[in-house]
Amino acid sequence: MKPAISSRLLSLALLVLLVGAWEVTVRQAGISALVLPAPSAVAKTLWTSLATGYLWPHIGATLAEMLLGLALGGAAGLAMGVALAESALLDRVFKPYVIVSQVVPKLALAPLFVLWFGFGMAPTIVMTALICFFPLMENTLTSLRQVDPNRLQLFRMLGASRAQTLLRLKLPAGLPGILAGLRVALVLALVGAVVGEFIGASRGLGAVIIAAQGMMDTPLMFAALTAIAAIGLLGYQATLMLERRLLRPYADQS
Questions:
Q1: What gap in Å lies between CA 126 and CA 201, rounded to an integer?
Q2: Closest CA relative to residue 201, chosen from 51, 65, 46
Q3: What is the pTM of this model?
C-alpha cells in the first residue's frame, strides 16, 4: 500500500475513533443535547438543514464573502509584497503602516465597518480582505528577497531589465512561498468571513451560529460548525492542487 493511501486511512480511522468515543461518552454520561449533542444528532440536524434547503443560502453567502475577501486581500497583498521587495524606499516608508494595520484586532474594527459600509456582505468582505492581506504580502516579500544571488547576478550580467528579472526569475523562484501564503490566507479568509458574520449579518454560517445560540439549538450550532470545517478542508485541498499544478513545470525542470 502506498504511504499516501495508508496515511489517509489512518487519518480516517482516527476520525471514526474520535466520533465513536464522542457518541459513546454522550450516551453513557447522559449529557444533555443542549450542552453537547451526540454526533448522530448533529448529523441528523445537518442532513435535515441541507435537505430542506435551510443551510444552502448561508453556505453560499459565507463562500462568496470568503472568496471575494480572499481575491481582494490576496491581490493587494501580492502587489504590495512585490512593490516592497522591489523598492527599499517603499519598504521603509510603508512597512510600519502595514504592521500597524495588522496589529489592530479586526474584530474591534467590525462595528466601524458596519457603520461605514452598512449591514450585509460589504463589511464582512472588507474585514476578510484585511485579514488575507498580510500573509500574502509577507510571504511574497520574503520569497522575492530570497532569490539565489548567483542567478540574480547572472540575469544582471545578461542585461535583463528589472521587469524581466521579476517575471522570469524572482516570481517563479518565489512561487512556493507565495502559494504557501495563499494557503494561510484562504484559511484566514474563512475565519474572517464567519467572524464578520457574527456582527450584524443576516446570512452566512456565522449568522446561523448566532441564531442557533439565541434559540438554544446546540445541534444546529454544531451542524454549522461542521459545514465550516468542510468548507475549510475543501478549500485547503483546492489550494494544494493548484500549488502542485503551478509548480509541476519547475519540478520537471529540476
A1: 13
A2: 65
A3: 0.85
Q: CB–CB of 119/201 below 8 Å?
A: yes
Q: Which helix (H) or strand (E) covers residue 204, if one does?
A: none
pLDDT of residue 1: 55
Distance CA 41, CA 219 (A): 6
Q: How confident is the model at residue 190 (pLDDT cuts 50, 70, 90)?
A: very high
Q: 156 CB contacts (<8 Å, ≥6 apart)?
A: 165
Write down the residue that cell numbers 492542487 correspond to: 241
Helix (H, G, I), strand (E, B) or coil at 30: coil
**Ordered domains of the chain (ranges, CATH):** 38-244 (1.10.3720.10)
Q: Residue 59 has what pLDDT?
A: 94
Question: Closest Cα to residue 127, out of 115, 143, 109, 103?
Answer: 109
Pairwise CA distance, residues 68 & 120, whole Å: 14
pLDDT for residue 4: 63
- pLDDT at 56 (0 to 100): 94
The crossing angle, in degrees rounded to 10, of helices 88-103 and 121-145 is 140
Distance CA 218, CA 213 (A): 7
| Cβ pair 83, 90 in contact under 8 A | yes
Single-letter amino acid, residue 143: S
Average pLDDT value over all residues in the chain: 87
Share of the chain above pLDDT 90, in %: 38
